[in-house]
Design goal:
This protein has four helices and ten strands; from the N terminus they run αββαβββαβββαββ. It is an alpha+beta fold. The strands form two sheets. It has a five-stranded mixed sheet with strand order 1-2-6-8-3, sandwiched between helices. Strands 4, 5, 7, 9 and 10 form a five-stranded antiparallel sheet that branches. α3 packs antiparallel against α4. The longest helix has 18 residues. The mean pLDDT is 88.
């Protein structure tokens, strides 16, 4: 029974934010339940040798596949997810010769128009920044132990509450077909 109690305390929102920072201080990853701090992310990635900064904010939109969305909810295996995020951040930083990188992901309920993820990068030039940010975001979606639940406002369970669908971190329609970026 102690193990179950330990797991519950690891997932308790009161024990967040949880962060990891690379040994050299150039990569920061974080999981949190409260609103994301965009200003902190912007300050973290700044570097006197960087001529380009890219800050991507993934926000909850009010619709998906022609259905009204009420909110998103995220769950994670925090210790594993943080280690995976830091590995992604350091790999991408090294591959693209980036100055600093940050990944911050929100857990719990994320209302419409609020951020669920920040991916930030600084580099000497814009080409590396764009490529690195895109690759980092895609790797987070593919590999991080973070799961998304999409809550739809147009479908309700017998108790009258909105129903949710667990979603892969890739956009698919209600039939599971990939939705291509436009």
């Amino acid at each position: 029974m102690a193990a179950a109690g330990s797991l519950i305390s690891l997932l308790d929102p009161a024990n967040f934010p949880q962060t990891l920072v690379s040994q050299d201080g150039t990569a920061h990853v974080e999981l949190r339940y409260d609103a994301l701090d965009v200003a902190f992310a912007s300050r973290f990635i700044r570097s006197p040798t960087a001529g380009a900064n890219v800050l991507f904010l993934g926000t909850t939109r009010n619709n998906f596949d022609n259905r009204p969305v009420s909110h998103l909810a995220y769950q994670a295996y925090p210790k594993l997810a943080l280690n995976t995020l830091l590995k992604i951040a350091t790999e991408v930083r090294s591959k693209h010769n980036l100055e600093k990188v940050i990944i911050v992901h929100r857990l719990g309920e994320v209302p419409i128009e609020e951020e669920s993820i920040i991916v930030g990068i600084s580099a000497g030039h814009r080409g590396e920044s764009w490529k690195g940010a895109e690759q980092m975001l895609e790797r987070v979606k593919e590999r991080a132990e973070i799961w998304k639940q999409e809550w739809f406002a147009d479908s309700q369970a017998e108790n009258g509450q909105p129903t949710a669908v667990w979603k892969a971190n890739k956009d698919t329609d209600q039939n599971g077909r990939p939705v291509l970026s436009q």
